Each structure stands twice: as structure tokens, then as C-alpha cells.
Amino acid sequence: MKTLTKISNTIMEKYLPDPYIFVTILTVLVLLLGVSLTDSSPLEMVTYWGGNFWKLLEFTMQMVIVLAAGHILANSPIFKKGLSAVASKIKTPSMAIIIVTFISLIACWINWGFGLVIGALFAKEIARHVKKVDYRLLIASAYSGFIIWHGGLAGSIPLSIATEGHPFANLIGVIPTNVTLFSTYNLFIVIVIALTLPLFNRWMMPKDEDTIEVEPSLLEEEKVALPKPENNFASRSERSYILTILIGLIGLVFLFHHFITEGFALDLNVVNTIFIVLGIIFHGTPQRFLAAAQDAIKTTTGIVIQFPFYAGIMGMMTDSGLAAVFSQWFVSISNEHTFYLFTFFSGGLVNFFVPSGGGQWSVQAPIMLDAATALGADYAKTAMAIAWGDAWTNMIQPFWALPALAIAGLKAKDIMGFCLFILIYTGIIISIGFLFF
After folding, report:
1. What is the model's pTM?
2. Where would you find the membrane-spanning parts of this chain (predicted)?
3. Using alpha carbons only, what angle is made at residue 299 by residues 52 and 201, rounded to the nearest 5 degrees?
4. Can you list the alpha helix ranges (DSSP code H) found in 263-321?
């Protein structure tokens, strides 16, 4: 395994381009495929792209805040001391890889947005304490927990079909989570991955001579010089603890009321609210909070620039019918025994071009649910096969790795050599789950 991962890392470092280059190549590829495999003309494909370019603005802003607010919270004195205290208990590279993977899996099972940020922040803090741990594998391990998100409490597809009035309710009705998230096959997949992926990641640890430790510059914290206090209202208000207490109290009351009335419902907006409220409280004064925010925004460049391109790609895939072409091909080679497996594979393929759980479900559901009806297949399991396909190829689709990479200060090519083997390993487990359970 050490030899294989070394070869994989070497190939990725030489040939995997920056995520921005990747998304531009993907844009051209989808345009050409749309012209070749559908009735769309080149001009129509371009208009599909341009017409959808700004369709992910709300989601883009949510992800920017996830990353920025996570940074703000992580750079607060209390949070840094807490992370440092936990990380200091980890003494060996092997323990570092295992614990980071497990914490990331648990956090992403609870909520994917929370898990993406916390896993990367925890990994970076561990790198400060543990010597001779491969930083690339450490961050890949933190990201690998994301594989589990669609089988967890925040999985968008199972939660969608469990909601009254969802778009496909007339065909499949309302499907409760006890037959999706808490089904035998899903629990098998989740539990096996949670118990074995930390050990698999540890197995990929490079030899000592091939280990690449963290660059010290990535762990340096830029000290922000705060303005000297002045004896006027503006300066006093910027350094006021009273304002922090009042805003923090308002935020905490809202969150408390939300969880009392809505249950443990964590969507991106709630996660962001938690991060921002705690960031305000932990930094103490508005001045220190805003200084941390200014520093955090620098890490969001990749998301701001690249997500509109993915929105354009998704538009070309859906409006041209190209996503339907891919899905129908998998249906055509399926039977009642292999249908769920090929649905999972089709979900993985479509996810390269439509890296959004909700967007992918809207594209694939009409085709796959009709096929399930014709084959007499189970609707809940069909939906979960699409969901796991969406989660699976995130391991080598840089779209979702951007927040973790921004926190870590790495590039996609630094971790994708490891992520390729995580993809293969988890793909075997997920396939077994859908074939034999």
C-alpha cells in the first residue's frame, strides 16, 4: 500500500491541475458531450451554461460563511486552547491519522458542513503537536470523513423524501428515515466505514523517507495589529464587551429556541449561526472579532470563483438532458439484482458534473424512480443508492475539498493520491451493502 500510494501521489502531483483548471476543463468537456450525446447545439449549451452561472449564489455564500466563520471560531483564544489541549494528547503519527479520521467521520455523520470545517481545523492543530506525521495524509484523513455524510443525519436526499409534499411524493409517498438512514444496508455501510476507514488511512502512511511534514509557514499565525485605543465613542464601542454579551445572548436564545421547537435540526444556516455566535462570544470584543473575520475571508477565494462555474456545468447537464443520458445508460444494463449497484455507480458518475446532493436528486430521481417502478425495486433503497453515489465520488471531486484545502493551505493534488484509494476502498464497502443487504 505504501508503494501504491507513493505512485498515486507522484502521478497526482504531476498531472492533477489546480481545481480552477479542473473546473474549466470540466466545463469544456460537458459542453462537447452535450453537443455529441444530445440534440443540443453548441450555442444552446453555451446558453445553458450562462443561464445557470449564478444559480448557486445562495449556496456559495453559505459555504463562504462556513469557511470564514469556522476560521473565526478556530482563531478565538478559548477555542484554540481547547483544540490544542486535545491535540496535545496525541503522541504518534499513527494515532493522529486514526483519531482525525474517526472524529471527521462522526462530525460529518452529524452534519457535513460542521464536519468539513472541524475535521480540517483539528487536523491542522494536530500537525502543530505531532512530529513526523505526513501532513498530506492528515488532511486527506480529515476530508475522508465526508464520505459518510449522505448516510448521516444531514443527508439531503433521505431527509427530502421524508418531508411532506416533496417533489416526488405523488410517486413514492413520504418515506421515513427508519427505512433509509436507519435501514440495515445503510447502517452496515456506515458502521463498517466508521470502524475500518481510520485503520485503512493509517495503512496508507508513507515510509519515513517519503513522509512530507507540514511546512512551518502554514502553521504561522499572522498577528493582526489592532488600532490603539482612543478616548472616544467609536473606539470604546469597538472594544466593548457589553455589545458582545448582548449579541451573544440574542444568538444563544435563538439557537436554544430553535433546538427546543425544531429538534436537533442542523442545516447550513444553523451551523453558520452557531459558528458566528460562538466566534463573537469567544473573541470578546467586536474589534478582535472583525480582525479575525478580515483574516478569514482571505481563505474563501476558491469557493467564490469556482462555484459559479459548477453552477454552469450543472445547468448544461440538466437542461441539455446529458445527466439523463448517463442515468438511462446505467438503467439499460441493470436487472432486479444489480439495479441498486448500478444506481450507485450512476450517482457517482453524475456527481462529477453535478456536485450537489439536492441538484443531483432532482436530475436523477425521475429516471431512477421510473426504472424502480418498472423493475419492482424499492424506492427508499433507490434513493439511498443515488445518495451514496453522490457522497462517494466527492473523494476525488475537488468541489467539496475546497474548504478543507483552504484551511490546511494545501492544493488538491497534495491529497488526491490518498483520496483515490479511499474512493476504491469505500466503494467496495458501499457496493457490498447494496448487493447483499
Report:
1. 0.84
2. 20-41, 53-74, 94-123, 135-159, 179-200, 241-260, 266-286, 307-331, 337-354, 415-436
3. 95
4. 268-283, 286-297, 301-319
